[in-house]
Amino acid sequence: MKMKSPVATAVAMAVGLIVLFGYFFPLPVFTGLRTLLLQWALILAGTALFVGMVNLSQYHWANIRNRRKPLGSVVVMISLWLTFALALYASPASTPIQWLFNAIIVPTSVALLGLLAFTLAYAAVRLPRRRPGLMAVLFLGTAVLIMLGAVALPGVGMLPFIGDTLRPWLAQVPAAAGARGILLGVALGTVATGLRILLGSDRPYGE
């Protein structure tokens, strides 16, 4: 059986503890080391992103050579490397990059969110048929009330009670409480995972 290297464990524990101490104990030594380590992490993240771009390019180049849906692969390759070249030549805050973001990425994201809304509405309609019960009825009723309160109806406008009272209450009280509960669970899970890595119980960074 192959032994796990204690060096990777020691390095990961030391880096994690230094960054953690730099946040809780603002001493010059810890603060400087924390800043340096975070800068190294950003460099490694950028390198990993570039490796991912190369890997994606290799995959789509293979599709182009083998003529497996080459049109989509050509569009992806041109868009990827053109945006990368523009960002290198100018800067991420330059006018061409901002135009690409505002004219392509933002409308595409909005379209995907709209598609998600219709998908959720369709799922809400089908849910009582597949799994009838109180929760299905509550989900369908909440979705209908949220949509009625968010959209002005033709010839009627915004519904008075649903639009200005009920929908904000649903969004700010039950929905916010559920979202905070989910975020709290994610935070606790992240803390537990981080502690296990710092203590050497989990070693995802080496054999």
Structure description:
This protein is mainly alpha-helical and 207 residues long. Among the domains are: 1-89, no CATH class; 150-195. 82% of the residues lie in helices and 0% in strands. It has helices at 6-24, 28-66, 70-89, 95-130, 134-150, 160-172, 174-198. The chain is extended, with a radius of gyration of 25 Å.
Quick recap of the structure?
By secondary structure, the chain is an all-alpha fold. Helices cover 82% and strands 0% of the residues.
Termini separation (Å)?
11 Å
Q: List SSEs in N-to-C order.
A: HHHHHHH
Task: Name the poorly predicted regions.
Answer: none
Tell me the overall shape: extended
Number of helices: 7
Strand content: under 5%
Radius of gyration, taken over Cα atoms and rounded to an integer in Å: 25 Å
Helix content: over 70%
User: What's the main sheet like?
Assistant: none
Number of strands: 0
Question: Which class of secondary structure composition applies to the elements?
Answer: mainly alpha
Mean pLDDT: 82
